[in-house]
Design brief:
Length: 130
């Protein structure tokens, strides 16, 4: 008799679980409507803003972000001088510069426990284990 009650309770529990999943699926929308990102980007970002952002990133020594921004501008067809930006970035982004920056970020992350870059994050994690 006990095993019959257990089986009955198991069936009721599994049925209730299946029904809750069915009710939960009503909250999810399965139909995705892709938005036209290129059109939105063109209407919301002016070319002068983009050029100012690239120049600011280069001045702040955020060269990877500057490269990504130049690539975005190129992808979306902005009329900026991609070659001159890449040339400026490549002149700054030497092996010596990148190594010095990574070591500095690692030490800063090690001392402060915070990291904005991969090297800084590695330094912060390294300090936790020492």
């Amino acid at each position: 008799m006990k095993s019959l009650v257990r089986i009955f309770m198991l069936i009721i529990s599994l049925s209730a679980f299946a029904y809750s999943l069915l009710l939960l699926s009503d909250y999810w929308e399965y139909e995705e409507v892709p938005s036209n990102i290129e059109e939105k980007f063109k209407h919301t970002v002016q070319q002068k803003q983009l050029e100012a952002e690239i120049n600011q990133l280069i001045a702040q020594d955020k060269l990877d972000e500057a490269i990504e921004t130049v690539q975005l501008a190129q992808h979306f067809g902005y009329n900026i001088d991609y070659q001159s930006y890449r040339k400026r970035i490549d002149q700054i982004n030497t092996l010596e510069h990148r190594t010095t920056k990574n070591v500095k970020d690692f030490v800063d992350g090690f001392i402060s426990g915070k990291g904005d870059t991969t090297a800084g994050f590695a330094g912060a994690i390294g300090s936790d284990f020492t």
